[in-house]
Amino acid sequence: MPSNAEGAEVKTTDDPKTMIKTWRPAAFLHADPANPPPPYAVIILNQPIDNPGLFVQICKNASLVVAADGGLNRLRHLSRQHDIALVRDVPICPPTQPLITKQIPHAVCGDMDSVHPDVLEHYSNLGTKVYRDPDQYSTDLTKCLRHLSSPEWKQYTFRHWDRYQTLARKAKQHEVSKQSSVSLDDTLDVLVVGSLGGRADQAFSLIHHLYAVDEDPQIQCGDVYLLTPESVIFLLRKGRNRIHTPVAKSQLGENVGIIPVSKPAVISTQGLEWDVQEWRTEFGKQVSTSNHVRREEVEVTTTERVLFTVDLGCIE
């Protein structure tokens, strides 16, 4: 079925001029010293970590690693199961050695009703900061996103990351249309490690959070990506979106989908096997799934925010 790509210009509600929002989902998945990604944080949810190779890859280059309550249990289980040493500020071992992340979690956030007391004590003794938030009207993921938006963590990130100067320069070159008073140099992109398998209500909750990020005034972060064991998912903005899709380099897979979760949308695409122009998509009628990337860049123009999903490539 048709899916996304480049299309006719559509004016956004945020800017009277047409802007192109650029997405680089593969930048975080494959380290490239010549072209490092902008600063980003990893949030570990209380769900199985089914792709250890992917997990290690994204954590070792992250500015911050934060566990959402019971996500700390998952991390502890992974370290025991796969013999992953979690040591802060040490070089990454050669591929022949056990998988090693660059840092233990910098923080754990939540109401602490899921994390095991012994696990919490273990990481607390290693230096992980504990942020207890008893609020029952916000999820642990929301609490993590809010903490990442705090001045304390922003200052920590940019003060301690040795590649800050290079990345700050690159960040200024990105084409971003984010509704926020915070400058690009002060915001973090966020990779949420989770899964859409298991309980259906939790899967819908994760999708909900992608939409809710822009609506919460306490959350001031960059782009938010949901990483599942097989896909990366993010929410395209209204207007023109350009997605870097290095399929030829095996950094991403070819299968994509454009999903109108919140409301019907009219989309135009370029760079897919089945491109469309001014194509209305709506649940219960027609939805673009199982399309294929055919260019290194895909462009999607949309009248409403829509989910974009793309397969992960080979993670070394």
Written overview of the protein:
The protein is α/β, with parallel strands linked by helices. 22% of the residues lie in helices and 26% in strands. The strands form 3 sheets. Strands 7-6-3-2-8-9-10-17-12-15 form a 10-stranded mixed β-sheet, sandwiched between helices. The longest helix is centred in the middle third of the chain and has 13 residues, at 200-212. The two termini are 31 Å apart.
Beta fraction of the residues?
25-35%
- DSSP strand count: 17
Please give the alpha-carbon distance between the first and last residues.
Answer: 31 Å
- Mind summarizing the main beta sheet? 10 strands, mixed
State the share of residues found in helices, binned by percent. 10-25%
Structural class: alpha/beta
Write down the overall geometry.
globular
Strand order of the largest sheet: 7-6-3-2-8-9-10-17-12-15
Average pLDDT level:
78
Radius of gyration (CA) equals 19 Å
Low-confidence stretches: 2-14, 86-102, 159-185
**Helix count from the secondary structure assignment:** 7
What pattern of helices and strands is seen along the backbone? Answer: EEHEHEEEHEHHHEHEEEEEEEEE
